[in-house]
Design goal:
It contains six helices and four strands; from the N terminus they run ααβαβαββαα. It has 230 residues and is an alpha+beta fold. The longest helix has 14 residues.
Length: 230
């Protein structure tokens, strides 16, 4: 840490008549928790607006955890010189993710992001992001209500789309199954024979005697004619 820079900051505050300020020389991950505990013991600082300007490596995970767990920090201004870096994006995710076993405290929500061109004619710029603490009610509402146009799977599976009928629905008119009553003109599999086509058990038609011999064809033992005695 640069102790001379801290001394210059104190001299600058004295020249401008600023007395309600304190400068601490040390790493944020080492001194931030202790400073917040001292403020808590003295009655609490009220609502706090935190300002962080980490190096390109981003904030230390302990600093992010400390900010998340302190309820007095309602707003956080994050100044990043490497907004596309892996560590910076990881800080943003940890600040905004839902509470879990690893991340405690109410999450933040990004409200405003403003790029600042400190290096003209170069592809580099600073990014200033304002995070605001999310209320418990809004967090519960966001987690329980699905976004518009995103119905649950239960809704989609319970109501079939138009034109898609299941097997238990009644068949449409004109489409009868094999167990239904056949329509007129559609006889069963064993219909009676049509007229003119009779089976062997039916009586023979007139003129077609099968057992009675025709006239002039006597049987082998006819009665003797009159006057012919044996």
């Amino acid at each position: 840490m640069n102790q001379q820079a801290v001394e210059d900051a104190r001299a600058n505050a004295q020249l401008n008549g600023i007395e309600d300020v304190e400068f601490v020389c040390g790493r944020a991950e080492d001194v931030l928790q202790g400073q917040l505990e001292e403020e808590e013991e003295s009655g609490g600082p009220g609502e706090v607006i935190g300002v962080v300007d980490p190096p390109r490596a981003g904030l230390h995970p302990r600093v992010v955890q400390c900010i998340r767990r302190n309820p007095h920090i309602q707003k956080l201004i994050y100044v990043s010189c490497n907004p596309e870096g892996h560590q910076t994006l990881g800080n943003f995710v940890d600040l905004c993710r839902r509470p879990s076993l690893r991340v405690k405290g109410t999450p933040f929500t990004p409200v405003v992001a403003v790029p600042v061109d400190l290096f003209p004619h170069t592809p580099h710029c600073e990014l200033v992001v304002l995070f605001q603490r999310t209320t418990t009610a809004s967090t519960h509402t966001q987690s329980s209500a699905p976004p518009p146009g995103d119905e649950s799977l239960v809704t989609e599976s319970s109501a079939p789309p138009p034109g898609d009928k299941d097997s238990s629905a009644p068949p449409p008119p004109g489409d009868k199954d094999s167990s239904a009553t056949p329509p007129p003109g559609d006889e069963s599999s064993a219909p009676p024979p049509p007229p003119g086509d009779k089976d062997s058990s039916a009586p023979p038609p007139p003129g077609d005697e099968s057992s009675t011999p025709p006239p002039g064809d006597e049987s082998s033992a006819p009665p003797p004619p009159p006057g012919d005695k044996d």
